[in-house]
Write a structure and sequence with these properties.
The protein is α/β, with parallel strands linked by helices. The chain has one domain (21-226): 3-Layer(aba) Sandwich (Rossmann fold). It is built from 8 helices and 7 strands. It has a 7-stranded mixed sheet with strand order 3-2-1-4-5-7-6, sandwiched between helices. Residues 1-5 have low confidence and may be disordered.
Length: 256
């Protein structure tokens, strides 16, 4: 089994799915949420890993420099107003402690090694830098649809071929790496119906969801800050010499 080839095919398939009407509907809502979050995170360099179909996300960042890294072939006719490189999140071609804001939209779910992705994120982020992740929620109607994908016959197609991790699990993973949870946000409450007419009829769920069932949103967005524990140097122990208070005479032992 060629994991690299499977990962590339999955990324290319996810990019193609983002061009569908359902994919565009989700991306529009995610963009709205990220625009509110990323404008509050400052720093000289912001980097996004993922697929080309989500390239507009990183443009909401307040960082001076933006970089988009995709793990599949970049089309020659693509009109992308960003600096784009071809690279995988499992092996980020970035210097250690060089990134202020790192955005990973739907990267963990489609990675062969999500733990390695998070280790790389910890490596490239500067101290106090921010990690922003967008992930499908397994507790949502999208998670249920993914569970039924084998019966339906599209279990190998994005976005159903991914592994959906709960918010709690992702928080546990990043805490081990020294990240501090900053905030969480929910997005998109419509079921994954391909029919645009049905989604339009269920549009009221978008207004009711944040108040009545936020834990069942299709997507959760997690913001974490990289913490580095300052190391206190260990001073060699030395025996302290006995000191007298000024003006006092050291007692002399009495003989006899």
């Amino acid at each position: 089994m060629n994991l690299t080839r499977d990962h590339d095919e999955s990324s290319a398939g996810l990019h193609a799915w983002t061009q569908t009407k359902l994919g565009q509907s989700l991306i529009t809502e995610e963009s709205r949420k990220l625009n509110h979050l990323l404008t509050k995170l400052y720093g000289p360099t912001a980097v996004q890993f993922g697929v080309l179909g989500m390239c507009e996300y990183i443009q909401s960042s307040s960082a001076v420099h933006h970089l988009l890294a995709v793990s599949h072939a970049i089309p020659d006719d693509g009109d992308v107003p960003l600096t784009v490189i071809s690279a995988a999140a499992e092996a980020m071609p970035l210097e250690t402690k060089s990134v202020s804001v790192l955005l990973l939209p739907h990267v963990l779910e489609f990675s062969n090694d999500p733990h390695r992705v998070l280790r790389e994120a910890s490596r490239v982020l500067v101290p106090e830098g921010h990690l922003v992740m967008v992930c499908f929620n397994p507790l949502s109607s999208w998670g249920v649809r993914r569970g039924l994908s084998r019966l339906i016959g599209d279990g190998q197609s994005p976005p159903w071929c991914g592994r959906y991790f709960s918010l709690r699990r992702v928080k546990d993973w990043i805490s081990v790496l020294g990240f501090e949870f900053v905030s969480g946000s929910a997005a998109y409450y419509l079921p994954p119906f391909k029919s645009e007419r049905i989604r339009e009829r269920l549009k009221f769920l978008q207004k009711m969801g944040p108040r009545w069932w936020p834990m069942f949103s299709a997507v959760f967005i997690l913001v974490a800050r990289k913490r580095e524990i300052a190391m206190t140097p260990i001073v060699p122990w030395r025996r302290k010499e006995r000191r007298l208070t000024p003006g006092l005479v050291e007692p002399v032992a009495k003989n006899g």
